[in-house]
Amino acid sequence: MPSIRTWCLYSVIVLISACNGGGGGSDDAPPSPASMEDIPETTLEPELPADQEDLSRVYSVVANQQVTLNFADGATLKIPRTALSQNQTLTLDIIDSESGRSYRILPEGLPFRSPAQLTLPVSGKKTVIAQRENGTLTPLLSSVLEQTQAVASLIESGDYLLVERPVAQVSRQIGPACNPDATEQELRFVHVADLHARYGSPDKLFSRIKAYHNRAVQEQPYTLFTNGGDDFEKGSVAELRSEGTASVAVTKAMKFDVRVVGNHEFAWGADTLIDYANDDHAQVIASNSHHHDREGETPFNANAFSVIQVGCLKVGFFGMSSPPWNELDEPIYQSPIPDFVPEIRMNWHWEQIARGVVDQYSDQVDMLVMLSHLGVGSDEDLLRSFPEIDIALGGHTHGGTDFTQLSSGNIVLQPDFFAQGLSDLKLTYSLTDRSLSSATVEHVDVFELRDTDAEVEQFIADIMTEYAGEAYTEIALADAPLSKTELAQLAAKAALFHHGADAALLDPEQVVKPWVQGSVNQTHFVRAYPVERQPSDTPGFKAFYRISVSQADFAAMQAAQPTWVVETRDGALPDPLTLIVQKGPAWNIPLFFNNLAQPEYTFLSEVWESLDQYARHRTTNCLYLDSDRTLSSCTPDTVTTTWQFNNALQPFLADSGPSGLGYYRGSSSASPENETRFESASNLGVPLPEGVDSGIMAFPDYSPREGLKLTPNVPTNGSFNGIDKLAEYSVVMDIYWPKAAEQTYRAFLQTSVDNSDDADGFFEGVENGGVGISTSRSGYFGDAFTDTWHRVGIVFYTHEEHGLFKVYIDGKLVGSKRPGQIGERWAISDALLLLTDNNYETEDGYLNALLFSGRALTDNEMEQLGATQQELRLQLPTEVLQRRVRQHQSQPTF
C-alpha cells in the first residue's frame, strides 16, 4: 500500500488523463507506456566468464534494476526497471539447428511486467522475430527491421528465433470480385464502438444499428461493419445474470465484419473472453494480447493482424486494447501496467506494435486500418507518427463523435457510445495509384432510425427472456425524482435491509444516473450503479463490502468524508459494528479515512441487487420505493375516468370517474358535432374491436376551432402543483386510423386550451409511424399501423428538470422521452384538447374508448390494460394485487 501522499499524487495524474472516468475513456491522449527507447543501456556482466565455445550466459538480475543482457553472439535483451518484481536468475542460451539459430531465455514463460526489448542480428531473408510455443512459430507483430538487426518487444521469456517476413493472407472477401477495368472504387465503413451491453431495451438500438448496416450493404456492397470495442458492462441485466454469456451471444449475433477487443471485454475472465473471440463471422482483432493456447483447451482465436479483400482493395486490420482500470476507477498508465487476467499477457508498447505492423505489412496491403480501442488522442498521436496507417476507426473516448483528417491525409474517426450513434464513413479510392480521392462521414443518431432487423431483434428478445425476464418489468414505484445524494441514501437503506449490517457509509458521487418518478425496474438500478468489474474478474468497483470497525473509527470515517451519506439501523449500535462501504473504500481504508488501519473486508453484493431486494419489499408493503406514501393500487381510485361511447344519446357520459368530456368550440360558429357520429362499428363499416361489435365515435379532421375538450376535475399534483397545474397524468385511447391518414401527422393531444400553438402529441405521418413529438434527440416511438385498432397510452411526468413521457402501444412500453424534455408546456391547467391542432394537422378516424387518469399509470397497469378490447377499463382487483405481492415475495435473492 503506497503512502497517502503517493496515492493523492497518482490520482491527480490519472484523473487529468481520463476526465470522463468510468472505465470508458478520455478525450485526451493518455501518458504513453514506456517506449522502446526508454529502456536504458546499462550492461550486466554474466556470473562467470563465458567460454568461447559456450553459447550459454547466466545472469543474476536484481528486481527493479534496469539492465542489458548479452547473448554469446552479440544479441541483446534489455530489461526495464519495472519488468521484474523479484530477483531472478536468467539464462540466455543459443541453440543452432536446421531451422536456424534459436535464442532461449530461461526460465521459460517468466512474465515481464513491462515489456523487454530483444535485438537479434539479421542475415539473409529472415528478418522478423518469432516466438516458438508448443512447436508453433508465431511472428511477433512488434518486430521491426532496423538496418542489420531485428528488434521486438517481449512480454515473457521463452524461445525466439528469426523467420522470414510473414505473407499477408486474405481471410475473407466482401462484395463482388475486383473489376479489372475500374479506375476507382468506393469503400464504406459502418462503425460503432463502446456499445456497453445496451441491448434489450424498448428502444431496440442494436436491431436499428443492424438494419442500418443491412441497408448500407444493399446500397454499397463494399461496406464493412466494424466495432471499436467495449461490448461489455454498464448496460444489461442479462449480462450480469449470465456472467457475460448474454453479451457474448448478442455481439456475435450482430455479425460484425471486424471488431477489436476493448478493456471491458476482460471483465468476466479469460474463458468468457476466449468465447467472445471465437466468432464464426467476425475477424476479432487483439494485436497487443497473447494467450498460451494449450492442448485440449479452446484456443484464443483473436488475430494480431487480418486482411480482408474488398473488391480491388486489400485492407489490412490491426488493433489494440487500452490499459486496465483499478478499484478506484482510475486507468493504470504507470509502469508496470498489469495484465487484465493472468491467462492473457498484454504488450503495452503500442508504438512498437504500430511500427511493426507498418514494417511487416504496409507494402502488402492497399489500405492499413487501425481498429483502435485506445481513445482519440492516442489514435491521432499514432497516425501522426505512422502516416502509413490510413485510418484509425476508434473507440474508448466516450466524448462524442470525432472526425479528423490529418495533414498527411490519414483519418481518425470516433463514433458515439452506448449504441446511441453510429458513424458512416464513405471513401473513394483511385485504383491507379491506390490513393484516397475523397472522404465523407455521417454521424447517425440511432434513436432517429426507424427500421429494425427482425432477426437481431428476436435473438435479443430470446436472450432477455432466458437471462433477464424482469429487466424492464416494474418492480416498484418512485414517488419523485431523486438527487445523487437522495439515491445514495436509498441505496444505504437497501444495503442494511439486504445484508443486515449495523450501518452504511456511501459516496453519492458513485451514483451515475438517478431515475425519475414512476415505474422503476432492474435496469434503472443497474444504470444508477453500473457494474464495472475493476480489476477484471472481480466484483464491480461500486459493490457493497462489509468491514468491522469500532465506534470511534466509525465517527472518524464520517468526519473524513462529510459529504457521504450514512444510514444506521434502529437502536443503539454495538462496538465494534459492522459497516457497509463500497469496494474502493473497502480495499483502501487508509486512503479514504485519514490512515485508519486496513481491516479485512467481505464482498456482499452489487448495489443493484440490494436495490432490487429492497424495492420488492417496499412494493409488498404497498409503499413507494422512496417515500412512505401508500401506492395508488392499494387505495380506491378516484382520479380515473373512462368513456366507452356506447350511449348514442349521451355519448360523452362517463362510465366512471370525475372527469368531463365534450366538444371544443373555438368560436361561436364552430360545430364539431355536425360531422361526429356515434354508432356501432358494424354500422360504420369499421373492423370490430377484438371481433366484437362495439359503440364507437367517428371523428372528422377537426379544424383548429373544433375538437374534443376534456376537463380533468381532479386535484393538481406533481412538480407544478404549486401553480395549480396537473403535472402527472395519463391518456389512453382505442384508436383506428384509415390507410388514407398514413402520410399525415395527426394531432391527438393539445394542452393549449385555445389551440393557439402546435399540438403536443402526434401520430407520425409516415408508414407504420410512431406516437410522440419531436424534441431534442428523440421523436416518435413504436409502430402504430393504420387500418388496425391500437390501444395507445401516454403517461406524463412533467417537470422542468426531469420531465418525460412514456408511450405504450397495446400494453407494451415502446419508448420514453429522455428526462428533461417534457416541461410545463405539457402540464394541464384547466382542460385538455383532443384530436385538434392549430395548423389543421388532423385526419378522420375512430375512437372505441377513452381513459383519462389524474395520475401517472404504472407500467404494470398499462400492461394490464393490454390491447384494444370491447371495453377499456382500469381495474386492479384485490386478487390481482395479492398475486402481485406474492410474486414479489417469491423472487429469488442474489
Automatic annotation (TrEMBL):
Q: Which residues fall in a coiled-coil region?
A: none
Q: Where is this region: Disordered?
A: 664-686
Q: Where would I find the Calcineurin-like phosphoesterase domain in this sequence? A: 187-399
- Biological process GO annotation list? nucleotide catabolic process
Q: Which UniProt keywords apply?
A: Hydrolase
Q: What is the protein's species of origin?
A: Litorivivens lipolytica
Matching InterPro entries, A to Z? 5_nucleotidase/apyrase, Calcineurin-like_PHP, ConA-like_dom_sf, Metallo-depent_PP-like
Put simply, this protein is called: Putative MPP superfamily phosphohydrolase
Q: Name one GO molecular function term.
A: 5'-nucleotidase activity
Q: Quick one: a GO cellular component term? A: outer membrane-bounded periplasmic space
Q: Where is the composition biased (Polar residues)?
A: 666-683
